[in-house]
Amino acid sequence: MALYVQKYGGTSVGSVERIEAVAEKVKGFREQGHDLVIVVSAMSGETNRLIQLAKSITDEPSTREMDVIMSTGEQVTIGLLAIALEKRGVPARSYTGAQVSIRTDSAYGKARIQHIDDQRIRQDLAEGRVVIVAGFQGVDDNGSITTLGRGGSDTTGVALAAALKADECQIYTDVDGVYTTDPRVVDTARRLDKITFEEMLEMASLGSKVLQIRSVEFAGKYNVPLRVLSSFADGPGTLITLEEEDTVEKPIISGIAFNRDEAKLTVLGVPDIPGVAYKILGPVSDANIEVDMIVQNVAADQTTDFTFTVHRNDFDKTKDILQRICAELGAREVSGNNKIAKVSIVGVGMRSHAGVASKMFAALAHEGINIQMISTSEIKVSVVIAEKYLELAVRALHSAFELDKVDTIAE
Amino acid sequence: MALYVQKYGGTSVGSVERIEAVAEKVKGFREQGHDLVIVVSAMSGETNRLIQLAKSITDEPSTREMDVIMSTGEQVTIGLLAIALEKRGVPARSYTGAQVSIRTDSAYGKARIQHIDDQRIRQDLAEGRVVIVAGFQGVDDNGSITTLGRGGSDTTGVALAAALKADECQIYTDVDGVYTTDPRVVDTARRLDKITFEEMLEMASLGSKVLQIRSVEFAGKYNVPLRVLSSFADGPGTLITLEEEDTVEKPIISGIAFNRDEAKLTVLGVPDIPGVAYKILGPVSDANIEVDMIVQNVAADQTTDFTFTVHRNDFDKTKDILQRICAELGAREVSGNNKIAKVSIVGVGMRSHAGVASKMFAALAHEGINIQMISTSEIKVSVVIAEKYLELAVRALHSAFELDKVDTIAE
User: Fold this and answer.
1) Which residues are substrate-binding (chains A, B) (predicted)?
2) Per-residue confidence at B394, pLDDT binned at 50, 70, 90?
């Protein structure tokens, strides 16, 4: 007998038939005696339909009014799911973000949750009802409707679980859990039973698009056990939780993330004087271009090569900016490469284990793969390589760290 | 410089193009210096789409959850209209029924407005904004979303006008006013400049479907000047208002209403004893059949013929009921006719003028039209005739009462 907050995304509620399937699933959990709070997204396609309506009036609609329009998508789903549950004899009641008092700031379109009043939900649960809450939305201090931005329904789920001190926040999606790496690249990729919040954050930010990053941060901050499961298949999914105490039995790394969305730019022969990094990255940031990895090496001749990566879509724009400021920097030249890929090993286990990075480099060298950039954090090592070697590198690392074996024990 | 509440119905906001046309219209009024509160319906077709979604789950969805779903239709329109106004440089802000605090009872699907908090709207108006309110919806004391039932947006408009003491509530629709009769039947039918609330109520209940009856009642009760105008053409429309003082200049009748939705049933040879009307109409009413006109005549032989009309769809069902109780009533037989029509003349002028009914009967007799039933109220005379004479009767009466002439003066 537990209290679960379950979130079902747009694909899981994409049609009346799928909403009925969710209702069946929820009924099953209810019959096991669990208390349930269900968070739903808009039916898939609906949010885009609403955006198109508004955009056909103007390219720059007021963000406040966009939120008024967009929030209707989830509102339709909550009503339909409540009806589908009641049809099955399961008492249910739906609430919009405003009704259940999910208070946010007034940053329309990307609002942040500040407070949730749990009284109404607790009362419904006590009276035996399943509570259904519209994801992705809230209300500001003026009573205006706000939305949390794309993927915000995950955040709604986690925030509700935190407010209600739920036993678990379960995110139902179209994958059955978090994998050691992408199964389309490595066929021995294995579903992880558990992963830590920190690892999940690194995996998510590196391109494993299972969960919205904000929801993982939120879950970590409030220590809400988070589980990713499939809406369409049975199975335990992956539990995302705090780091365990017994690190001895932790695998060194949990997974391999990668992406091919980035491009690399280098300013060669920059005078190695204070403030040069700012002089290079200032204009880039002013153009609203996000920078990911940054590497700087000092050469013998008092000059340095400054390399960083940006999203591949921003490659040409960034190159233009750098070429414009090259002369005033006193730099020799600008070079770039948009045929790169980033591969990362992630795992809290590497904190207590030396030699993880060198094992990674050895595995890549063994396959003849040249490393162009290296960046490390406490629980991750990332390298940039030529894009053509991406699959080869991921498979080599997956095998080198024995990720296809269950319960890999630290060496 | 006035305060107008303007209501635009589903056809007027049926597409993004039409919403932009409404925005143009509103901008024009704003430029004349008027304060404006705009009430909108769902885009035409949207409410039916939402009903279909819910009905595909169950034929009897919870009324509370239906209201959660249905209210999204208007919510999309208010956001789109606000965006269209802001695009034109007209400051605007949208509100759902709940946000602007349109308090209703909890009769989901047919809720009644109890209170409106006008503070927020007044503040926006004072700050120079056009206020846009979702029609058809409100919120009950528990914070649950309610809807007022079909046509409820008219009621929202009138209620807002009453709360704000607006100079006029203007209902924009696809007709350009209230006519002396249906222009498709009488080509000299004339748009009325003015009509009283009472006359409008009689016209509306008799089948002139320009305004929802409840909104007219509401306007009469709170003395809100109500104007019906066309969304698509310019023109003054028809003002619905309190009876004027100078009845000398009132035309005797204002219009001719008719409908062919009814059927007539007669129980012949009923013993003329107390309680017989109840014995006949009790079982009919128990079957949820609404009765309109009722006529009873006493015959010489201590029996009576009891005649009444019902909606044509209920004809067979009613006949079955009557045949079942015929014997226990001691009645001779049951007869019925569903090829009838009801024609009514309506006008407050007839209060102070004798001979209106006889003039009506003379005009019908002149055309050889037999009158099957007669029913009168203070400002209306209705007759039932054979359906085939309907158009002939309406034209004859329109001409007899000189409705095609402007400002007909009492004889």
Assistant:
1) 47, 74
2) very high
